Amino acid sequence: MPSHQPAAGMMAVDPAYVSQPSPMASKDEPNRSKSYDPKKPHITDTPLTKANWYKHVNWLNVFLIGGIPLMGLIQAFWTPLRLYTAIWAIAYYFATGLGITAGYHRLWAHTSYQATTPLKIFLAAVGGGAVEGSIRWWARDHRAHHRYTDTDKDPYSVRKGLLYSHLGWMIMKQNPKRIGRTDISDLNDDPVVVWQHKNYLKVVFGMGLIFPTLVAGLGWGDWLGGFIYAGILRIFFVQQATFCVNSLAHWLGDQPFDDRNSPRDHVITAIVTLGEGYHNFHHEFPSDYRNAIEWHQYDPTKWSIWTWKQLGLAYDLKQFRSNEIEKGRVQQLQKKIDRRRAELDWGTPLETLPVMEWDDYVEQCKNGRQLISVAGIVHDLGESNFVNDHPGGKAMIRSGIGKDATAMFNGGVYFHSNAAHNLLSTMRVGVIRGGMEVEIWKKAQQENKDAYIAKDSNGSRVVRAGFQPTKVFEPSATAGAA
Ligand SMILES: [Zn+2]
Ligand SMILES: [Zn+2]
Predict the structure, then answer these.
(1) How far is the CA of 305 from the centre of ligand 1 (A)?
(2) How close is the Cα of 283 to the center of ligand 1, in Å?
(3) Using 50, 70 and 90 to split pLDDT, how confident is the model at 436?
């Protein structure tokens, strides 16, 4: 049995994976830095000062992310860009970008599909050419990013700022113990991943610089152009583009599936990142091989994986059922509707209205108050001087004052609209003892039978169209007789 296969009697969660330091913090792991000792205090444990700031900086990454492109930009000044080289640089940009999005991300970090060995070797090679670290390192951090999104254990938390999530987390040294623990046993079992990790520098120079130079040099004699444009500057663009998944995709756009965390969907991010811009969807359904689920959305990474499947290079493409996806969308919509509902005046909640005796109601009207009772609920028309504004005229509404206007309002005189019931509810000031529906509803509340009363996420009663408590479908025979 494979070592990481759970067996009967084992704990549901292996304690080794519960909030432990990252595997890079262990001596037995194949860390590339030989000087790293997990027992010694890490530089990030000491505060940043004028005297030690340079120790906090990851100089290798500064060189890889900033130094190399700067050299390329300077060289580009006196290196003419030839057409073939430009086409090759763009094509290689897409290939190395796919190495990250389809390889590092969707295949290795999320196992959203299976790849045959030739495809794995191709993706490990071109992914290395993007110069973003080894698959093993990249996928480990990315799994921590998904598990601990927006927290301190997220290696590139956008809560620390847009620039930090884009570049800062690589330029400044990170304490490997801070980053959340994730299970990467599957990656340690993958010979392609392990080989690439151990030979990472060879892969970077070979695929990042030597290979694109060779193609342009042997192909059409443009050695320097191949080195500058398809090598150095192409690395810069592909790095900046894919870094946008960590920054822009957590910053710009909509949240159709969940808004508790920062991931967002936006077409601009998708265009920049070869389709990784539907990031709200991706964080909700990370093992789906798609990021864009609509056919018209831009996701060349998905199209590539699908094409590889047709060619027999990829298989087991994982996809969430549309029923599950739609549930998330509906719940998020409901949340938005509840938020809009909370901003509206739905009238004083029935349960907080004072109870009035019928005689008291009649008496107050005789003394000049403009009260009207509909379905046992008393409304004050005087405050907003509604009698003058009544669309059906003053005489009609006046005839209901001091009486039970339930039948008049619900079809006896005029069958009032939903909007009229809504408006009426904002004027309510009391309920009549023994009044109609209110009493039934209150009794049900007391008997704890309120399960049928829909409440929104703020705990307020949901009033559906046409279901205001003043709406009575069959006016009682006695109504209007008073
Ligand atoms: Zn993310
Ligand atoms: Zn992801």
Answers:
(1) 20
(2) 6
(3) low
